[in-house]
# Entry
Amino acid sequence: AVRALVRAHPRAASAANAARELPIHCACTRNVTTEVLAVLLEAHPRGARAAKLGGDLPLHLACHAGIPPASVALLLSVHPDAVHAPNTTGDLPLHCAVDALAPPAVLQMLLRLHPMAAAARNRRGDTPLDVLAVAGRRQPGGRRAASAANAAV
# Structure
């Protein structure tokens, strides 16, 4: 369906709403398939570099939504430097990923491209491990999930 919509109206992939959200931003928050992300990125590759209000790139949103590793890999293939970009609260994509208790494969991808992110502090002074500790306490089964994510970091 997304492919048909993009074919019918190719510029729609680059049209932002009032919050400066592109379709790629919305897709990343809704945990769509990797194929949908690929269609949107093919139609508007610069969308991977576009920050919405609040400074979130699609990678921040995807990491916070807990999208699958293949989708994170796709976003990183288009804009690998996104791992270095803080949003307006100072969160790197790694902060967002640990907050969502992302799979270890996602954390490993982010750390491979930006190993120093593990020590980076956001504007609240939190490192990704600080964020992980809070996320693990508030999620059901958090201790086990937090331990798995901690092992990846």
User: Anything to note?
Assistant: DSSP finds nine helices and no strands in the chain. The CA atoms of residues 14 and 118 lie 33 Å apart. The radius of gyration is 15 Å. Residues 142-150 have pLDDT under 50 and may be disordered.
